[in-house]
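note to self: dont lose this again. the chain is below, predicted strucutre after it. 300 aa total, dont forget to put it in the shared folder this time
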Amino acid sequence: MSASNVSVDVATFFPDIEGNLTKIVWEHAVNSKEKLDNALVSANVKMLEADVTLGTLNGTSDNSTQLIPIMAHPPATKSNLSLDDFLNTVIKKNVTKGIKLDFKSINAFNASIPILEKVRNNTKFPVFLNADILPGPVNASTTPVTAKAFVSQAMAFPEYTLSVGWTTRYGVNDNVTEGQYTEQQIQDMINILKEQKVTQPITYPVRAGLAANSTKVIKSLMENSSFASNVTLTVWSSEGDKVDAETLSTLIRDIGVKKVYVDVPQDLMNKLHLSGASSVMVASVTLAVSLLTGLLSSIL
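---
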């Protein structure tokens, strides 16, 4: 990694959050010039999430075979914003924002690599490379992005955060209100990242309603990811998802607000109790050390 390609720490880049990643405000589906312009001038928004797929720009013939990375969510295949223009606009505006690029296929990612290479020396802000690389709950049928191909090629950008998750079938659109991540799904993710010898920052996007039902395995995921330099969780949710807010709040507090991004609708955010949250696991370890120290002192 060259000096110009040093990983940008999110907590350092946004000092006003005081290390609390749950304070990061996200803007979704920034897939048009208008949404990008609005997001870049928003005082509250810190991270821009946008979808990358292969398609054509508005005004291009429907018969065009020249597919390029555009900002759009499938099934859309047209946009007024290309990935190239998206990145260069963010760079030129030079505002305090980070970006999360959600790649919808391995072909879209492959076509994006030369564009990412071209601008990487100018991305002085947090960049997340995201893809759903494994099938997840509840019997998700969406085809994941090819796991090993995505991870191995994303490793060419060690200064960027690798954001890798699971496809899901949950929520009002799927008429599914119960489900959880399994131990096998968690282990499959860990195995892939270990096999590829990933060391760069990682964040695991997990769906809020499912994560709240899977606290044990989600904690296991975090505990068994010490092979990477910096590991976080990104809790996300769709409108109308069934979520046990109390259990989710406890999970976030247990892992620690310095390790969890919360990207959920405002009505769910309002139900979470995260103020003053610190890692219960860290607190427990601190207490144990204190008790042990006291015991040794009394013995000695």
